[in-house]
Amino acid sequence: MSQILDEVIDANNKYAADFDKADLPMPPGRQFAILTCMDARLDPAKYAGLAEGDAHVIRNAGGRASDDAIRSLVISYKLLGTREWFVIHHTDCGMETFTSEIMSDLLSKSLKTASVDADGWHDCCAGGGSAEGQHIAWLTISNLEQSVRDDVERIKSHPLVPADIPVYGYIYDVKSGKLIEVPETAKKSGCCN
Ligand SMILES: [Zn+2]
Predict the structure, then answer these.
(1) 102, 179 in Cβ contact below 8 A?
(2) Dist CA 76 CA 54 (whole Å)
(3) Most exposed among 15, 39, 138, 185, judged by the fewest C-beta atoms under 10 Å?
(4) pLDDT per residue over 74-92, tens digit each?
């Protein structure tokens, strides 16, 4: 077994040993959802004070409002009763470090892990790449506040999203652990007026 696999199974055995959440209902008890980045430094349960059963957390690279993120949010509201949503991007996001062109170019040459330095991203090896990367919208970020505004706007204006769901736009600061509001999203969120 791999060391990581060992560690995960060990940790799970400890978690399950005194497990007391068997009676939680499926719908989130606090009726809200968070869309955020998969970045390993972000722990939504900690930065937003969640316990098991509290809220939906939808994560992808960048915390972007992709079609699949919107699919999850629509299910979250329509079938599982969430009433308020957060879009939370973060400082120092990896999605700011490349463009779709750079990503598809790297993948076209090699599928192996690339490296980054002051001059940008570099493939380690040549051969075995694929042009398929050109057909994926990588949803990279060039301006952090704008990406939050764009995603809040995309969610708010989506035909499957009811107009009365507040969608709050925030940036998580990886240096302080704080959530910082993105100003223009507040008045569009539908909250508190
Ligand atoms: Zn990120």
Answers:
(1) no
(2) 12
(3) 15
(4) 999 999 999 999 999 999 9
Helices of type H across the chain: 3-17, 44-47, 67-78, 100-109, 144-156, 183-188
Q: How far is the centre of ligand 1, averaged over its atoms, from the C-alpha of 23 (Å)?
A: 33
CA of residue 39 to ligand 1 center, whole Å: 5
Distance 171 CA to ligand 1 centre (A): 10
Question: What is the rounded CA–CA span in Å between residue 94 and residue 102?
Answer: 13
- Check the CA dihedral 118-119-124-128 and report its sign: positive
**pTM > 0.90:** yes
Fill in the amino acid letter for 35.
Answer: L
Please provide the distance, in angstroms rounded to a whole number, between the alpha carbons at the two ends of the chain: 56
Q: Tell me, what's the pLDDT at 125? A: 85
- Residue 191 pLDDT level (bands cut at 50, 70, 90): low
Q: What is the CA radius of gyration of the chain?
A: 19
CA of 94 to the centre of ligand 1 (A): 5
- Is 179 in contact with 88 (CB distance < 8 Å)? yes
Measured CA to CA, the distance from residue 105 to residue 123 in angstroms comes to: 10
Question: pLDDT at position 187, please?
Answer: 61
| For the chain, percent of residues with pLDDT exceeding 70 | 95
Interatomic CA distance for residues 178 and 112, integer angstroms: 35
